[in-house]
Design a protein that fits this description.
Distance between the termini: 30 Å
Number of helices: 2
Number of strands: 0
Largest sheet: none
Strand content: under 5%
Helix content: 55-70%
Order of helices and strands: HH
Length: about 70
């Protein structure tokens, strides 16, 4: 449903949407690698970097999204 209304969504909702898409893709890829006996630790390190950048952009000192700030 969000894909149809994406152009009307605010910036914070769009950032969270893309974060969830990236997290889902990385997790599905990690599961597929694990089932084939391939180590997925480097992929999970990539996920940690993506997650850290997301949190820095949304709520850290480099915040550009004002709607997601808690304080």
């Amino acid at each position: 449903m969000f894909l149809y209304k994406r152009k009307y969504a605010d910036r914070s909702t769009t950032i969270i949407f893309y974060y969830l898409i990236a997290a889902g893709l990385i997790n599905v890829t990690a599961i597929a690698l694990a089932r084939n006996g391939i180590r997925n630790l480097p992929l999970l390190h990539l996920y940690t970097v993506v997650e850290t950048v997301f949190f820095l952009v949304t709520s850290g000192p480099f915040s550009t999204v004002q709607e997601l700030r808690w304080s």
